């Protein structure tokens, strides 16, 4: 069964006008160097641009490899040539120092010309020492040597700007691109030991293009020495960057499936042994993470109207809201760690899910991974088994109960990227992972769909973001008390009133507060005493309101 996502390969690369002009200028400058300075060099575009152009995809980043010449020297001369002889203005050259941790093993010259971002670097060969992904020796190399040091054959193609032709020095890149094969130029074990990050890049490109991973590469990826090297030699930030790209890619499910199939899960979603040894339980089987991701994919992909179809509101939110889909797939991929905790050095309980994100992947709050994914799991615990028939969604009234549930910070909170629709989808996924048969699964989906319909019927899809109709100052004046911490509890009580009175005005709310006070249903002394003593106060108890069952 084909899984190819990438378009068919083109026979020739079609240049844009800007790209054609760039190639002409580069060719003229190399001739200028030869004629005027007796310097011989050649320019080749390499890597992702060549691959993407052959697939008919646009690319605005061009890496130019130079024969026997350093990138900075060439770029500075090129800019001067354009200014003096072509009257073309070029952005200032930026010199990017070598930074092995960011896969920059040589200094690079960077600029922008004709609206195209350019990097200049020399062709090179590399040698690695055992136990490090940083080359011990880098020297000028031939195009073949440069091609062989790259991660994949499809990324080792060159475009010769002088002959305007594609060059495949590995003699496999074009065929692999055509046939949808992920293969390393050199034997995969050697390639991965030199730089274990290449294992993860293989996963990313396989999932991005829907390509199949070559058998020998699969076998090498499963070797313990490779998995250990991935943990020992690669910074967790680099691992996190690759996972981020996979989760934001076209097929995050395929990426997760490959990670599990190649037995890379523990090396990628790494939790230090000193943490797992004190955790509340051992991680669940990795296959459950795959099941969660598969379930999420099915819910988002199906457009048919049957018992397993997701409510359109839930589906459209996840697919249209930037970052939400990636966040949900990352959460699903971490299902193996769901419900497992450990004490941190201060004795505070932490979750393995957060540890894997924070320490294993070094992903922070970008795209709300570090704060949003743990919130999804907290929301799933809160929403588990949710049904319109439950008392917790009926008391003190249906609109108030559902509204308060949706306004729980783990369920809906702009600060963590949490939205009630995304939270419902993920909670549904968690329930479906445990469903024993299709009938149970269908019943589960229908429960969540029914809740979503009711949310919309009651207008709660908009009410989750309402601001209090009265501020703390107005409440203090009605209560005839000085402002203080007690007002926070009363603001929440006002919000509860608003949910029960969607058409109520400020005047209505003020009248209600006065009545509550005069009837003795608001105990201000208890409120103030509790907040002054810094106790955790149950606002429902303090205001004599009926408690909503959770």
Describe it for me?
The protein is α+β, with helices and mostly antiparallel strands and 550 residues long. Helix content is 51%, strand content 10%. The protein has 27 helices and 13 strands. The protein has helices spanning 17-37, 48-54, 71-85, 143-148, 173-179, 188-194, 197-209, 215-221, 224-233, 236-247, 252-261, 265-268, 273-276, 286-301, 312-320, 324-333, 352-360, 369-383, 398-406, 420-433, 438-457, 460-463, 472-479, 486-500, 506-518, 524-532, 539-542, and strands at 43-46, 61-66, 94-96, 108-113, 116-122, 124-128, 135-140, 158-160, 165-167, 181-182, 212-213, 341-343, 349-351. It has a seven-stranded mixed beta sheet with strand order 3-4-5-2-1-8-9. The longest helix is centred in the first third of the chain and has 21 residues, at 17-37. The radius of gyration is 30 Å and the shape is elongated. Mean pLDDT is 91; it is low at 101-105 and 539-550.
């Amino acid at each position: 069964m084909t899984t190819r996502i990438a378009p068919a390969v083109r026979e020739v690369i079609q240049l844009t006008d800007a790209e054609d002009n760039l190639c002409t200028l580069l060719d003229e400058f190399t001739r200028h160097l030869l004629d005027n300075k007796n310097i011989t060099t050649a320019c080749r575009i390499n890597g992702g641009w060549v691959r993407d152009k052959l697939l008919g995809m646009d690319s605005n980043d061009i890496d130019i490899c130079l024969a026997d010449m350093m990138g900075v020297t060439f770029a500075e001369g090129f800019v001067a040539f354009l200014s003096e002889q072509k009257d073309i203005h070029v952005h200032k050259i930026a010199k990017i120092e070598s930074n092995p941790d960011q896969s920059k093993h040589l200094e690079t010259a960077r600029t922008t010309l004709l609206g195209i971002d350019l990097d200049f670097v020399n062709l090179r060969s590399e040698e690695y020492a055992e136990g490090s992904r940083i080359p011990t020796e880098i020297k000028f190399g031939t195009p073949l040597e440069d091609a062989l040091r790259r991660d994949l054959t499809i990324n080792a193609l060159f475009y010769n700007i002088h002959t305007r032709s594609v060059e495949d020095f590995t003699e496999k890149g074009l065929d692999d691109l055509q046939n949808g094969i992920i293969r390393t130029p050199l034997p995969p074990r050697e390639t991965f030991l030199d730089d274990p990050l290449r294992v993860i890049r293989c996963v990313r490109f396989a999932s991005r293009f829907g390509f199949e991973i070559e058998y020998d590469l699969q076998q090498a990826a499963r070797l313990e020495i490779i998995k250990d090297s991935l943990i020992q030699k690669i910074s967790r930030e680099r691992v996190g960057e690759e996972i981020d790209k996979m989760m934001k890619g076209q097929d995050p499910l395929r990426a997760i499936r490959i990670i599990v199939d190649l037995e890379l899960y523990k090396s990628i979603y790494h939790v230090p042994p000193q943490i797992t040894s004190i955790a509340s339980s051992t991680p669940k089987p990795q296959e459950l993470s795959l099941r969660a991701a598969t379930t999420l994919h099915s819910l988002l992909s199906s457009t048919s109207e049957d018992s397993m179809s997701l409510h359109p509101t839930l589906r459209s939110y996840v697919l249209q809201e930037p970052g939400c889909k990636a966040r949900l797939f990352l959460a699903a991929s971490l299902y193996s760690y769901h419900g497992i905790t450990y004490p941190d050095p201060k004795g505070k309980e932490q979750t393995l899910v957060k540890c894997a994100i924070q320490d294993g992947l070094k992903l922070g709050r970008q795209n709300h991974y570090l704060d949003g994914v743990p919130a999804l799991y907290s929301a799933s615990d809160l929403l588990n088994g949710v049904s319109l028939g439950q008392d917790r969604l009926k008391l003190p009234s249906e609109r108030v109960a559902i509204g308060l549930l949706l306004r729980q910070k783990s369920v809906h909170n702009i600060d963590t990227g949490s939205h009630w629709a995304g939270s419902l989808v993920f909670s549904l996924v968690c329930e479906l992972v445990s469903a024993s048969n299709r009938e149970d699964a269908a019943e589960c989906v229908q429960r969540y769909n029914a809740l979503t319909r009711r949310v919309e019927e009651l207008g709660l899809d908009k009410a989750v973001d309402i601001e209090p109709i009265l501020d703390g100052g107005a409440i203090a004046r009605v209560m005839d008390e000085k402002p203080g911490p007690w007002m926070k509890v009363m603001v929440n009580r006002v919000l509860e009133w608003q949910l029960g009175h969607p058409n109520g005005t400020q005047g209505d709310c003020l009248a209600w507060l006065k009545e509550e006070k005069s009837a003795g249903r608001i105990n201000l002394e208890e409120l103030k005493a509790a907040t002054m003593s810094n106790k955790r106060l149950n606002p429902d108890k303090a205001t004599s309101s009926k408690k909503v069952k959770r």
